[in-house]
Amino acid sequence: MTMFTGxxxxxIGVAEPSTNSTSNASASGEPEHARVVIVGSGPAGLTxxxxxxxxxxxxxxLGGYEAGGQLMTTSEIENYPGFPDxxxxxxxxxxxxxxxxxxxxxxxxxxxDRVDFGSRPFRLWAAGVEYRADAVIVATGAxxxxxxxxxxxxxxxxxxxxxxxxxxxxxxxxxxxxxGGGDTxxxxxxxxxxxxxxxxxxxxxxxxRASKIMIARASEHPKIxxxxxxxxxxVVGQDRVEAVQLSRTDEPGEETLPIGGLxxxxxxxxxxxxxxxxxxxxxxxxxxxxxxxxxxxxxxIFIAGDIHDHRYRQAITAxxxxxRAAIDAERWLETAGAVxxxxxxxxxxx
Length: 350
Ligand code: NDP
Known about the structure:
Layout: E1 32-39, H1 43-54, E2 60-62, H2 89-102, E3 106-108, E4 112-116, E5 122-126, E6 129-138, E7 142-144, H3 150-154, E8 160-161, H4 164-167, E9 175-179, H5 183-192, E10 198-202, H6 212-220, E11 224-227, E12 230-236, E13 243-248, E14 254-258, E15 261-264, E16 268-270, E17 301-303, H7 315-335, H8 346-349
Parallel strand pairs: 1-2, 1-6, 2-3, 6-17, 8-15, 9-10, 9-15, 10-11
Antiparallel strand pairs: 4-5, 5-6, 7-16, 12-13, 13-14
């Protein structure tokens, strides 16, 4: 990635840190200027905020109306290091946020509607306020796709999950169903055989779209049973999953499958939104980074977390990317001459 030498100097006008959690649009309607604006408040965005704040960059986090990312719907996290007894998703994200705010990050629960990365400073609009940034970290994550039935939503976190790596451990010695016919569904089903007594794969068509090797592995696994040409009509259970009601898609017919857990693996949608117009993405919509860094194709814009990582999709890996993005942004700002001579830089605090 090249530096943007030859452009007009970046204006610095750092907003005062505040604990206000909603948009604090300036009364004058003037744009707010920050050295670093971070978009997204999941593990990647808030870790970037902690690192950027500790580097005296006074980051503004435009965290979204549904702040906290996917962990806000995860009841218990047992694989985040440092919490040997596990921790609730919302509680963990609350701690991330408190830590970021303690060092001066300003976290605003607003959605970014529009961006202009065509000139500097970069411009972003959220809840009617224009933000200007010398550097931007995009950490908007990806959202798991859900079936969209009421019982699935109600039992999310109570036996319905979209992440086998996160939640599989809770289903030891139970029968589990996985919905989907792609590589993720089959991979999750194979992973879940470590815990479950039996794994049922429910797929709406008669053939899988997954790779041949994964189909062979799943079909041959003694603990896996395939239920093709079926969709989930209803998740049965009041406070926890007890069964799924399946409808056939090739002929009339319904059946009930008693299970203790249901994993939805029908794909993820990267939250590229307003950024897609400016930043390159792959064929499935995930933003792409340059080489082994968090740099995007535009100097000064950095990318972290599930918005580009469709391979690992873990809180810890997203947090790690947030740290990397803040380090990349700080070093880039320093080299571009946009960081004033304040005593602490990221390199100094590391
Ligand atoms: P995919 O889009 O490949 O598959 C989604 C599956 O969910 C499809 O079988 C689809 O059915 C089904 N589905 C979608 N919507 C619904 C719905 N509303 N109701 C019921 N079923 C539904 O997503 P994946 O997450 O599996 O994979 C994404 C990408 O990541 C792929 O390119 C995949 O190859 C890759 N990947 C690679 C892995 C690896 O290499 N180890 C591991 C995991 C993923 P239908 O087939 O009928 O459309």
